[in-house]
Protein backbone atom coordinates (compact mmCIF):
# COMPACT_ATOMS: atom_id res chain seq x y z
CA UNK A 1 0.00 0.00 0.00
CA UNK A 2 1.39 3.37 -0.95
CA UNK A 3 1.85 6.16 1.62
CA UNK A 4 -0.26 9.33 1.36
CA UNK A 5 2.94 11.30 0.81
CA UNK A 6 3.03 10.29 -2.83
CA UNK A 7 -0.38 11.84 -3.35
CA UNK A 8 0.22 14.38 -6.05
CA UNK A 9 -1.95 15.99 -8.70
CA UNK A 10 -2.23 13.69 -11.72
CA UNK A 11 -3.73 14.52 -15.05
CA UNK A 12 -6.84 12.42 -15.84
CA UNK A 13 -8.69 12.76 -19.15
CA UNK A 14 -12.49 12.35 -18.90
CA UNK A 15 -14.81 12.15 -21.86
CA UNK A 16 -18.09 13.92 -21.09
CA UNK A 17 -20.17 11.64 -23.38
CA UNK A 18 -19.49 8.43 -21.51
CA UNK A 19 -18.04 7.88 -18.04
CA UNK A 20 -14.92 6.11 -19.12
CA UNK A 21 -11.46 6.72 -17.68
CA UNK A 22 -8.38 7.08 -19.83
CA UNK A 23 -5.39 7.06 -17.48
CA UNK A 24 -2.47 9.16 -18.49
CA UNK A 25 0.02 7.01 -16.61
CA UNK A 26 0.32 4.24 -14.08
CA UNK A 27 0.32 6.77 -11.24
CA UNK A 28 -3.47 7.18 -11.49
CA UNK A 29 -4.02 3.42 -11.15
CA UNK A 30 -1.74 3.33 -8.10
CA UNK A 31 -3.66 6.21 -6.51
CA UNK A 32 -6.99 4.45 -7.18
CA UNK A 33 -5.74 1.29 -5.55
CA UNK A 34 -4.41 3.23 -2.53
CA UNK A 35 -7.70 5.12 -2.03
CA UNK A 36 -9.91 2.09 -2.69
CA UNK A 37 -11.53 3.60 -5.76
CA UNK A 38 -12.86 1.27 -8.41
CA UNK A 39 -12.04 1.68 -12.03
CA UNK A 40 -15.67 2.62 -12.86
CA UNK A 41 -15.83 5.46 -10.28
CA UNK A 42 -16.33 8.78 -12.06
CA UNK A 43 -14.49 10.92 -9.46
CA UNK A 44 -10.96 10.86 -8.07
CA UNK A 45 -10.42 13.13 -5.06
CA UNK A 46 -7.09 14.68 -4.04
CA UNK A 47 -6.27 16.49 -0.77
CA UNK A 48 -3.68 19.27 -0.89
CA UNK A 49 -2.30 20.61 2.39
CA UNK A 50 -0.51 23.94 2.77
CA UNK A 51 3.22 23.56 3.26
CA UNK A 52 3.97 27.15 4.45
CA UNK A 53 2.10 29.51 6.69
CA UNK A 54 0.94 32.72 5.07
CA UNK A 55 3.23 35.56 6.08
CA UNK A 56 2.06 39.04 6.96
CA UNK A 57 2.67 41.82 9.47
CA UNK A 58 0.19 42.51 12.23
CA UNK A 59 -0.43 46.05 13.52
CA UNK A 60 2.69 47.37 11.81
CA UNK A 61 5.07 45.38 14.02
CA UNK A 62 7.92 45.43 11.50
CA UNK A 63 7.70 49.18 10.92
CA UNK A 64 9.76 50.20 13.97
CA UNK A 65 11.06 53.63 14.97
CA UNK A 66 14.00 55.27 13.21
CA UNK A 67 17.52 54.79 14.55
CA UNK A 68 18.38 58.52 14.48
CA UNK A 69 21.47 58.08 12.36
CA UNK A 70 23.53 60.93 10.97
CA UNK A 71 25.62 63.84 12.24
CA UNK A 72 25.17 64.81 15.89
CA UNK A 73 27.82 67.56 15.91
CA UNK A 74 28.47 69.94 13.05
CA UNK A 75 31.86 71.13 11.85
CA UNK A 76 33.46 73.67 14.17
CA UNK A 77 31.26 72.71 17.14
CA UNK A 78 32.89 72.33 20.57
CA UNK A 79 32.85 68.81 22.01
CA UNK A 80 34.21 67.12 25.11
CA UNK A 81 35.55 63.56 25.50
CA UNK A 82 32.79 61.01 25.02
CA UNK A 83 30.51 63.16 22.84
CA UNK A 84 29.11 61.25 19.85
CA UNK A 85 29.81 63.15 16.64
CA UNK A 86 28.34 60.87 13.97
CA UNK A 87 26.11 57.77 14.06
CA UNK A 88 26.19 55.45 11.07
CA UNK A 89 25.73 51.90 9.82
CA UNK A 90 28.94 50.89 8.15
CA UNK A 91 32.02 53.01 7.64
CA UNK A 92 30.96 56.01 5.60
CA UNK A 93 33.16 58.12 7.94
CA UNK A 94 36.36 57.06 9.69
CA UNK A 95 37.88 58.35 12.95
CA UNK A 96 40.65 60.90 12.49
CA UNK A 97 42.69 63.00 14.92
CA UNK A 98 41.61 62.57 18.58
CA UNK A 99 38.54 60.47 17.64
CA UNK A 100 37.63 56.80 17.84
CA UNK A 101 35.00 54.43 16.46
CA UNK A 102 32.57 52.44 18.60
CA UNK A 103 31.39 48.90 17.98
CA UNK A 104 28.23 50.25 16.30
CA UNK A 105 30.41 52.35 13.92
CA UNK A 106 29.66 55.63 15.73
CA UNK A 107 32.42 58.26 15.82
CA UNK A 108 33.05 59.87 19.23
CA UNK A 109 35.55 62.36 20.63
CA UNK A 110 38.58 61.46 22.73
CA UNK A 111 39.65 65.01 23.61
CA UNK A 112 38.03 68.41 24.02
CA UNK A 113 38.17 70.56 20.91
CA UNK A 114 36.46 71.58 17.68
CA UNK A 115 34.96 69.12 15.19
CA UNK A 116 36.47 68.89 11.71
CA UNK A 117 35.18 66.91 8.70
CA UNK A 118 38.07 66.43 6.28
CA UNK A 119 39.90 64.18 3.82
CA UNK A 120 43.50 62.99 4.05
CA UNK A 121 44.81 61.97 0.61
CA UNK A 122 48.17 60.93 2.06
CA UNK A 123 46.49 58.54 4.48
CA UNK A 124 43.79 57.21 2.11
CA UNK A 125 42.73 58.72 -1.22
CA UNK A 126 39.00 58.02 -0.90
CA UNK A 127 38.14 57.90 2.81
CA UNK A 128 36.57 60.81 4.67
CA UNK A 129 37.52 61.44 8.28
CA UNK A 130 36.17 63.15 11.38
CA UNK A 131 38.70 64.68 13.78
CA UNK A 132 39.12 67.06 16.69
CA UNK A 133 41.25 70.19 16.41
CA UNK A 134 42.37 72.06 19.55
CA UNK A 135 42.53 75.48 17.91
CA UNK A 136 39.35 77.16 16.72
CA UNK A 137 41.06 78.28 13.51
CA UNK A 138 43.08 75.08 13.08
CA UNK A 139 42.81 72.84 10.05
CA UNK A 140 43.00 69.10 9.54
CA UNK A 141 44.88 67.09 8.42
CA UNK A 142 48.07 68.34 10.01
CA UNK A 143 51.14 68.69 7.81
CA UNK A 144 53.35 65.60 7.65
CA UNK A 145 55.89 65.29 10.49
CA UNK A 146 54.36 68.31 12.27
CA UNK A 147 54.12 68.51 16.06
CA UNK A 148 50.84 67.13 17.39
CA UNK A 149 49.01 68.89 20.18
CA UNK A 150 47.86 66.56 22.93
CA UNK A 151 46.14 67.02 26.30
CA UNK A 152 46.03 70.52 27.84
CA UNK A 153 46.60 71.90 24.32
CA UNK A 154 50.38 71.79 24.79
CA UNK A 155 53.23 70.99 22.44
CA UNK A 156 56.19 68.83 23.49
CA UNK A 157 59.21 71.08 24.13
CA UNK A 158 62.73 69.98 25.01
CA UNK A 159 63.73 71.32 28.42
CA UNK A 160 67.19 71.59 29.90
CA UNK A 161 67.13 70.06 33.39
CA UNK A 162 70.20 72.03 34.48
CA UNK A 163 68.45 75.32 33.67
CA UNK A 164 65.58 74.67 36.14
CA UNK A 165 65.81 76.35 39.54
CA UNK A 166 64.77 74.88 42.86
CA UNK A 167 61.41 76.66 42.65
CA UNK A 168 60.59 74.98 39.36
CA UNK A 169 61.15 78.11 37.24
CA UNK A 170 63.41 78.42 34.24
CA UNK A 171 66.76 80.02 35.08
CA UNK A 172 67.59 83.36 33.48
CA UNK A 173 70.74 85.39 33.08
CA UNK A 174 69.90 87.44 36.22
CA UNK A 175 68.90 84.42 38.30
CA UNK A 176 71.04 81.40 37.41
CA UNK A 177 70.15 77.95 38.56
CA UNK A 178 71.20 77.14 42.12
CA UNK A 179 73.43 74.14 42.41
CA UNK A 180 73.11 73.73 46.19
CA UNK A 181 69.68 72.08 46.02
CA UNK A 182 70.73 69.69 43.29
CA UNK A 183 68.81 68.68 40.19
CA UNK A 184 65.04 68.49 40.31
CA UNK A 185 63.42 65.16 39.51
CA UNK A 186 60.45 64.77 37.17
CA UNK A 187 57.45 62.99 38.68
CA UNK A 188 54.68 60.93 37.12
CA UNK A 189 52.65 64.08 36.43
CA UNK A 190 55.56 65.49 34.36
CA UNK A 191 56.29 68.15 36.99
CA UNK A 192 59.72 68.98 38.44
CA UNK A 193 59.88 69.13 42.22
CA UNK A 194 62.28 68.68 45.10
CA UNK A 195 62.66 65.49 47.05
CA UNK A 196 60.47 64.92 50.10
CA UNK A 197 63.35 65.26 52.56
CA UNK A 198 64.22 68.66 51.09
CA UNK A 199 60.63 69.84 51.30
CA UNK A 200 60.40 68.64 54.92
CA UNK A 201 63.36 70.84 55.96
CA UNK A 202 61.83 74.02 54.49
CA UNK A 203 60.77 75.27 57.93
CA UNK A 204 64.25 74.72 59.31
CA UNK A 205 65.81 76.71 56.48
CA UNK A 206 63.32 79.55 57.03
CA UNK A 207 64.15 79.66 60.82
CA UNK A 208 60.56 78.85 61.82
CA UNK A 209 60.40 78.04 65.56
CA UNK A 210 58.12 75.12 66.46
CA UNK A 211 57.08 74.30 70.02
CA UNK A 212 58.80 71.20 71.24
CA UNK A 213 56.66 68.17 72.05
CA UNK A 214 56.92 67.15 75.71
CA UNK A 215 55.68 63.61 76.40
CA UNK A 216 53.65 63.18 79.61
CA UNK A 217 53.47 60.43 82.22
CA UNK A 218 51.70 57.60 80.37
CA UNK A 219 51.33 55.50 83.55
CA UNK A 220 49.44 58.27 85.35
CA UNK A 221 47.27 58.85 82.27
CA UNK A 222 46.34 55.15 82.17
CA UNK A 223 45.36 55.19 85.86
CA UNK A 224 43.04 58.17 85.31
CA UNK A 225 41.44 56.57 82.27
CA UNK A 226 40.86 53.30 84.13
CA UNK A 227 39.28 55.16 87.09
CA UNK A 228 36.88 56.99 84.75
CA UNK A 229 35.82 53.69 83.19
CA UNK A 230 35.06 52.15 86.62
CA UNK A 231 32.98 55.16 87.73
CA UNK A 232 30.99 55.20 84.47
CA UNK A 233 30.26 51.45 84.82
CA UNK A 234 28.91 51.97 88.40
CA UNK A 235 26.67 54.83 87.24
CA UNK A 236 25.32 52.62 84.46
CA UNK A 237 24.43 49.87 86.95
CA UNK A 238 22.56 52.35 89.18
CA UNK A 239 20.53 53.68 86.23
CA UNK A 240 19.57 50.17 85.13
CA UNK A 241 18.54 49.24 88.72
CA UNK A 242 16.31 52.34 89.04
CA UNK A 243 14.67 51.60 85.66
CA UNK A 244 13.97 48.00 86.74
CA UNK A 245 12.41 49.22 90.04
CA UNK A 246 10.12 51.67 88.24
CA UNK A 247 9.01 48.96 85.82
CA UNK A 248 8.19 46.60 88.71
CA UNK A 249 6.05 49.30 90.40
CA UNK A 250 4.09 49.87 87.18
CA UNK A 251 3.32 46.15 86.87
CA UNK A 252 1.92 46.03 90.41
UniProtKB/TrEMBL annotation:
Coiled-coil regions listed in the entry: none
Q: Which GO terms describe its molecular function?
A: structural constituent of ribosome
Q: Which Pfam families match?
A: Ribosomal_L27 (PF01016)
A single GO cellular-component term from the record reads: mitochondrial large ribosomal subunit
UniProt lists compositionally biased (Basic residues) regions at 236-252
Q: Where is this region: Disordered?
A: 51-73, 233-252
Alphabetical list of InterPro entries matching this protein: Ribosomal_bL27 (IPR001684), Ribosomal_bL27_CS (IPR018261)
Q: Which UniProt keywords apply?
A: Mitochondrion, Ribonucleoprotein, Ribosomal protein
One Gene Ontology term from the biological process aspect of the record = translation
The UniProt entry, under SUPFAM superfamilies, shows: Ribosomal L27 protein-like (SSF110324)
**Gene3D superfamilies in the record:** 2.40.50.100
Q: Where in the cell is it found?
A: Mitochondrion
In the record, the note on similarity to other proteins reads: Belongs to the bacterial ribosomal protein bL27 family.
Q: What name goes with this protein?
A: Large ribosomal subunit protein bL27m
Tell me what organism the protein belongs to: Polyplosphaeria fusca
Amino acid sequence: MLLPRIFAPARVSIQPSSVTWIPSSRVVEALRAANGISATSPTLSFVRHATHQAQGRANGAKDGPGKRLGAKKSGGEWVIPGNIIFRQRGTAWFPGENCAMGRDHCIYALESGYVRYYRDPLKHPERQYIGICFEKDGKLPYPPNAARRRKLNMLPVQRDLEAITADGEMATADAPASTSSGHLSMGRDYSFRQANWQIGRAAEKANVQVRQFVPGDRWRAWQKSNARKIISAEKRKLRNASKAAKAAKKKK
